[in-house]
Design goal:
alpha+beta, Ubiquitin-like (UB roll), five-stranded mixed sheet, Beta-grasp_dom_sf, iron
């Protein structure tokens, strides 16, 4: 188990306990914690409804694949800290990372 943090627009952070051994992606974890993520493409990196911003620890994440980069390129507010949560598998390297949900701000 690792802990990650989700920061809201007020700067408040909620700690989430995340299993690293169950094969879930971060989008599925966030949905399990009842965050309002549509995930209309089912985690195929096509819809960007699971867009997140990495606030702390970006350097510990794996590089984005071409599909994720192509999808992020379609978003007006994507930047170098943007990722799709469906493309991230929780690992020990992610312990303590801080994210903000961006898809909700785009809706």
């Amino acid at each position: 188990m690792i802990n990650i943090f989700i920061e809201n627009d007020l700067g408040e952070r909620q700690a989430l306990e995340v299993p690293t051994d169950m094969g879930f992606n971060l989008m599925e974890i966030l949905k399990a914690y009842e965050y309002d993520i549509q995930a209309t493409c089912g985690g195929m990196a096509l819809c960007a409804t699971c867009h997140i911003e990495v606030l702390e620890g970006k350097e510990r994440l794996p590089e984005s694949n071409d599909q994720e980069l192509d999808t992020l390129d379609t978003l007006p507010n994507a930047d170098s800290n943007s990722r799709l949560s469906c493309q991230l598998r929780p690992s020990d390297e992610m312990d303590g990372l801080v994210f903000r949900l961006k898809a909700l701000q785009e809706a």
